[in-house]
């Protein structure tokens, strides 16, 4: 089981609104959507092992 770390993130309202809609379209929470986007970007850029 991986350890999770909390942090505060401030976003422009238009970015948050777009992210919230995207998350809903994918049946995820905003937090889950951010985790998905970050994990994919890290894998695509070979920053973490697949």
Describe this structure in words.
- The chain has 50 residues and is mostly helical.
- The protein has a domain of 32 residues.
- The chain has two helices and no strands.
- The longest helix has 15 residues.
- It starts with 12 loop residues before the first helix and ends in a 6-residue tail after the last helix.
- 0% of the residues are buried.
Overall form: globular
**How many separate helices?**
2
Classify the secondary structure makeup into a structural class: mainly alpha
**Termini separation:** 16 Å
Summary of the model, kept short:
The chain is mainly alpha-helical and 50 residues long. It has helices at 13-25, 30-44.
Indicate the topology.
Blueprint: H1 13-25, H2 30-44
Helix pairs in contact: 1-2
Q: Key features?
A:
single chain, 50 residues, mainly alpha, 2 helices
């Amino acid at each position: 089981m991986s350890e999770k770390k909390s942090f505060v993130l401030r976003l422009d309202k238009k970015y948050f609104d777009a992210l919230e809609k995207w998350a809903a379209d994918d049946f995820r929470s905003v937090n889950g959507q951010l985790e998905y986007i970050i994990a994919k970007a890290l894998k695509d850029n070979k920053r973490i092992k697949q």
